[in-house]
């Protein structure tokens, strides 16, 4: 981007070996003091040392006995220590004393508070978030992932507080100042972004895994029982990873800590993993099935990082996807092993693969592997490409190589690079050695270029055959929602499935190929939706597949794949809305949650945005009611039936929510009745249905329902329930109530800063009118958002939540003009994606608006 100074990494003439660090946090005035002695290796003579430091006061600095002159470079977040004579080659001791503030911005060493559920008192805590580049806000350090060191940490804290760090407590002693000195064991060699501390009042539950690793889940005071589910997940997960990687967990303990305020969902600090409360705590009476599933996945994700990211760390942020893509894949493998009833791989195709395919079809996407210079560029790649597409290509690679070769390759990679750093190519090399397959040759096309292929396929009787075989003509091009001008090509592992269950594999390395398959009633590419591509079938092949869908002959993931691909093809102008809605109608017979959830999300993101622009919301709601009601009746209505499993619970909630927001009379009436009994304490709404009931009542209610919801939010101490309610408030269609929700965000009374963008997103997603009102509110309060979210990933997430679903060039121009006047470099790509989406939606509306109006005319009230 223009106007940037060239970023330079820290000088290579010195590197840290060990940090001996003592910190004294003060939770009364939210400050801290620090002292450290860093063992430094000098590799060539130098008169200066350059470290990372930001928002710190350094009082003294000396190397051995030589005093340093201290000078800061605030834009580069560095401090230069200059000496009168050259520092000798070899090891020496750098002694520093410094101080800083426990900030409120959820980065570095920061403060957070919660309310004790038993006493109602405010409890103050101090916790850390050092990734990606914020260790420098707590201690002067070499804050780059390749500059690993060991850490000896001591915390001086009040006697009634718990102090935690990466390693177990080694000793504690009283001090003359009345504080207790807590010394921790030395850490293994690790990157600065993995160092962590937590200080406060916590309860915990404890267990040991099968290898006698001590496990604890720390919770706010009085809520220890809410940590038991996560503890069970961790107890099952660590041995699974040890066996899968053939490498034991290398630390003697693992703590999982629920943090009231956290910018990310969780952070994989080695041995001290931090989580938002909603990502860790489960209440047996008040948590939904969806929450248990989410907690299992996030715990599995962060614990995978203990090996893939912590034991072996990316060399630089360019290889971030090695950490995040891999953990995002293996979390599903782990949860599937530990909780098979979740059918979690079917959830993967919606939560990860589909998200990646949508984002990566934009011109403003990026490759999985993005060259990163300055740390200020990092936040933009914590997105669905690094996480979800990264996970999806690893899933495809795992399927291609097979489990045994894949595991062997991972074990080689981890053993070869443990306690060190690695690049993508080193993983490919290990997998090639284990499998004998050309992994780098194939995978380079998936990680180094953006986008993915559209595989076109047609069938005809094979020549010189007795009529028992079909010849498939297969070709590839880049799939894009906009223009298809790219000449990119991929090396694509393709699998073909016939109605009789015959599977044929091929590796497409050219633009086109032909393959023969046995003649069958239908032929489908990409069974199980493992390949990272869209499929465009010939008209005859598509007709056969739709018939198979209606007869129930396709697996759940294959039905999902067909439905998802057709919505994408519609958005790209390769399918008409009439053809698309015929397929939607065929999905009425669907019985599984994940397919329905994706169908409803696609209808909202692809069609409802057009409907809002056309002013046909009432007709659209009638269409949604007739679409969803048969499936709702098949679920047995509102109440769980004997034998209902996890999937049925999720499906029932999704259908009630869709029908309730569409104004289905009997669903709205029942939701109101249940809400009233819930608020009075007469009969609690089952946790699985609360979100659906809250949204239904607020969307179809007024001030009384709004006040009742606020009262419920005030009374609960479960953050999951607070989240449910505050995100439901945005469903209100009353302009005055909508404005009250927006004001809640900036008032700071009820909505935590970490949750603010999601509350705004809930308002924005309710309707076009709500979206525009939310955008106006953000523009009017931009100074507040910049002050509160400065330097955080939440600013780029704010753009994603609010700006993505507009449908006119006028709205796009308004967004573009605003950010030209108010530049936001950390969200530059997000802004481009929002503008591209708005203009693409406008093009789809121009192309299909009349057809959509004609279709919805039959649903006039």
TrEMBL record:
Any GO molecular function: metalloaminopeptidase activity
Active site: 302 (proton acceptor)
Domain Aminopeptidase N-like N-terminal stretches: 16-194
Gene3D superfamilies named in the record: 1.25.50.20, 2.60.40.1910, Neutral Protease Domain 2, tricorn interacting facor f3 domain
Superkingdom, taxonomy of origin: Eukaryota
Site (Transition state stabilizer): 387
Domain ERAP1-like C-terminal: start-end pairs: 522-839
Annotated positions binding Zn(2+): 301, 305, 324
Cofactor note: Binds 1 zinc ion per subunit.
EC main group: hydrolase
Enzyme Commission number(s) of this protein: 3.4.11.-
Keywords carried by this UniProt record: Aminopeptidase, Hydrolase, Metal-binding, Metalloprotease, Protease, Zinc
Cellular component terms (Gene Ontology): cytoplasm; extracellular space; membrane
GO biological process: peptide catabolic process; proteolysis
Peptidase M1 membrane alanine aminopeptidase domain: residues covered: 229-446
Cofactor(s) for this UniProt protein: Zn(2+)
Family, per entry: Belongs to the peptidase M1 family.
Name of the protein described by the UniProt record: Aminopeptidase
